[in-house]
Amino acid sequence: MTDTKTSALAPKKQRLLSIDALRGFDMVWIIGAEKIFAALFIISGWVVFDVAAQQMNHTSWHGFTAYDLIFPLFIFLSGVSLGIAAKPLSAYPPEKSKQILQHGVKRLFLLILLGIIYNHGWGSGIPLVIDEIRFASVLGRIGISWFFAALIVWYLPVRAQWVIACVILIGYWLALAFVTIGDFGGGNYSASGALNVWFDQTLLPGSTYLNQPLDPEGILSNIPSVVNALAGVFVGRLMKQQLATPKKLLISLLAFGIFSIVIGYGWGSFFPINKVLWTSSFVMVTVGFSTLLLALFYGLIDVLNWRRWAKVFAVIGTNSIIVYVGSSLINWSYISSSVFGGIIQVAAPGWRELFLFGGMVLLQWIVLYWLYRQKIFIKV
């Protein structure tokens, strides 16, 4: 995501289709496709669809499901793009480096603002009541993790970037395990007693998600999310270096992904894998699966050149901000019911839900396809 303008021109830089396709694949599960498995289970009774439907729900607390990967995968992919394109600011003329930094700051605050809008941050309406506004958001975290990863890439050498990533993960684990403030922390990883709760209750302005003690995008858990973006940077840099040797690159991606997953699950045995707390073990597991998915998409699309199917997802991935913000501001379920209402009303259970949620995905895809065909890419 590199520009806030709506451009009538295609991006000048060559893009890897696999990255756009994977970003679109990631986004499709939040625009209605996640409900399709439950409908297919009702229709067929096949256990595989029931298992898939269960994976399309967040874990209640500790643990990990496929749906938990959607958010960190997006952060990871923003880091991959940064790793492919970014250079130290010292490599640019002073005026250019100043412009890049200013754009990064603008991007950060714009994503925070869009996150508040996504949360319907106007509360009960004008006049605004600050305590009703939820400032923490998914888009805000994407902006924060990307921005601080970018600062690290722009100002520090590669070895220092790896060291910082390790220090963040280990430091976050030690903080949650041993630091106590009042009744919070000291190895308490519950939704009411974790160290993160003190930060959100004391320092986070406005309201939390569903007015709970702990916000899933709260203050302290922003810190380890930076490593998801940094890991994407490392993978993006690796891809840039090894694009000329695709098989070697695939092996490198697979090795890095498997290594990260093993570390994550091993760490999770004493520092639980938890999305809301965004624990270090959760970071490693999500980095691992993100890398393996990228290896799969890169191998199929950019190595084997199976590109036609990928454009179905790339249509979504190239306008991901529109997809995400639109999912909050537009009632696609109502529109799908209006367009396909005749079919939905007479359909049998299971088929009814399949037409409703499939229609939601199709209608959004048609809008995005029109933007894609017009070469209109709205980016931040």
Please supply descriptive tags for the structure shown above:
about 375 residues, mainly alpha, 4 strands, about 65% helix, globular
Describe the structure.
The model is unreliable at 1-13 (pLDDT under 50). This protein has one domain (6-378). The chain is mainly α and 380 residues long. The protein has a two-stranded antiparallel sheet. A two-stranded antiparallel sheet has the order 2-3. The termini are close together. It has 15 helices and four strands.
Question: How many strands, what sense, and barrel or not for the largest sheet?
Answer: 2 strands, antiparallel
Overall helicity: 55-70%
Q: What is the strand arrangement across the widest sheet?
A: 1-4
Instruction: Determine the strand fraction and express it as a percent band.
Output: under 5%
* Shape type: globular
What is the total tally of β strands? 4
Order of helices and strands: EHHHHHHHEEHHHHHHHHE
List low-confidence stretches. 1-13
Count of DSSP-assigned helices:
15
State the domain count. 1
Mean pLDDT: 91
What is the rounded Rg? Answer: 21 Å
Topology:
Elements: E1 6-7, H1 17-28, H2 36-44, H3 47-55, H4 70-85, H5 94-118, H6 138-155, H7 158-178, E2 180-181, E3 184-185, H8 195-203, H9 222-242, H10 246-268, H11 280-303, H12 310-317, H13 320-329, H14 332-346, H15 351-373, E4 377-378
Q: What's a quick, concise take on this entry?
A:
Helices cover 64% and strands 2% of the residues.
